[in-house]
Amino acid sequence: QVQVVESGGGLVQPGGSLKLSCVVNGDIFTIWSMGWYRQAPGKQRELVASISNQGTTDYGDSVKARFTITRDGARNTVALAMNNLQPEDTAMYYCTVLARRTASSPRDTTYWGQGTQVTVSS
Asked: Would you give the DSSP letter of residue 101?
């Protein structure tokens, strides 16, 4: 069984910082990429940031230059450092993992965590 577990959300004032962490538990043959999505009430889920197993990163336009994604491949963890947070960053943040479950799996699978809430408010 594969579990994706997020941590680090909370309440922060505008201009503040938070760091989210995510760990993948369970046996996985290989992880292709890890990343973060977010969903605010009444809005569609959107990409925040992703990082491939080669270290290639991608960011949503609204978070570029403020957020940084990093990955520890040996420990199957990914982190998201968020700086200069604004009220519009308020959302549930989900960790996502694209992986091949076993060597014989016919296709890749995307795993999702349960989410961690980030609230930016004064």
From this structure: S
Q: Do 94 and 80 meet the contact criterion of CB atoms below 8 Å apart? A: no
- pLDDT reported for residue 18: 98
Average confidence (pLDDT) per 10 residues, the chain, 122 residues: 95 98 93 97 96 96 96 90 98 97 91 97 96
With helix as H, strand as E and coil as C, how does the chain read? CCEEEEECCEEECCCCCEEEEEEEECCCCEEEEEEEEEECCCCCCEEEEEEECCCCEEECCCCCCCEEEEEECCCCEEEEEECCCCHHHCEEEEEEEEEECCCCCCCCEEEECCCEEEEECC
CA dihedral 92, 98, 101, 102 (to 10 degrees): -160
CA angle 54, 60, 66 (to 5 degrees): 90
**Quick one: pLDDT at residue 4?**
97
Q: What single DSSP character describes residue 64?
A: T
C-alpha 95/C-alpha 113 separation (Å) is: 5
